[in-house]
Amino acid sequence: MSIESKIHNKSLSVFLNLENLKVLIVGGGNQALKNLNLLVESFPNTQINLVSENISENIKDFAKNHENIRLHERRFFEDDFYNSHIALITDCGVDFYTEIIDIVQKKNILISIANKPELSDFQLESFISDKNKLPPEEQKSKWQYSKDAKKYRRLVIYLSLSFAAFFLGIAFDQYFSYAQAKDFVYE
Q: In terms of CATH, what superfamily is 4-134?
């Protein structure tokens, strides 16, 4: 699969339970720390391996408090991807992207590269740059239904009510005559 075929114009929101998946983070800077925080906050038992030639002291301090985080202060190897389901590439240089993408495609691992959605299979919320973030009003409603979903939900409710009224009308017609119903309404 070429890099061009990985470029996505549309996205689909998918929610993964990472409790039983192993995550590999390549990078040891601020972006990696943000993603560690996000993962541990959401899924405290997820097994996380972090590989980087330079791991920040903040990450080392953070990892001391979490048994499920393993730090490897070295360059990443292809073997690092063998036991991973998902790879987050954070603070690496552009030189590594094509090498990592080739490895990941061989292993069928989902990959997310910080600030490179065109090269990624998915994006964590923290990977979205500030310029692409939604305004505060829209952030509040991001977990609510989209406009299309609201429209279809309304349609389903109206159709359900119409069918219910139709079947109630049939049932009502079976047990009461028109004259009885008219007398009931007038009373």
A: NAD(P)-binding Rossmann-like Domain (3.40.50.720)
In whole angstroms, give the CA distance from residue 65 to residue 57: 13
Query: How far apart are alpha carbons 11 and 107 in whole angstroms?
Result: 23
SS3 content of the chain, % helix, strand, coil (to 5): 50, 15, 35
Report pLDDT digits (tens) over 113-157.
Answer: 877 777 777 777 644 444 445 455 554 444 445 566 777 788 888
Q: Give me the pLDDT at residue 140, please.
A: 45
Tell me the per-residue pLDDT of 37-77, one tens digit each, with 9 for 90 and over.
888 888 888 899 998 888 989 999 999 988 999 999 988 88
Q: What backbone phi and psi angles, to 5 degrees, belong to 11? A: -135, 160
d(CA 78, CA 96): 12
Q: Provide φ and ψ at 59, rounded to 5°.
A: -70, -40
101-139 exposure pattern, b = at least 16 Cβ within 10 A, e = fewer: bebbeeeebbbbbbeebebbbbbbeebeeeeeeeeeeee
pTM of the prediction?
A: 0.59
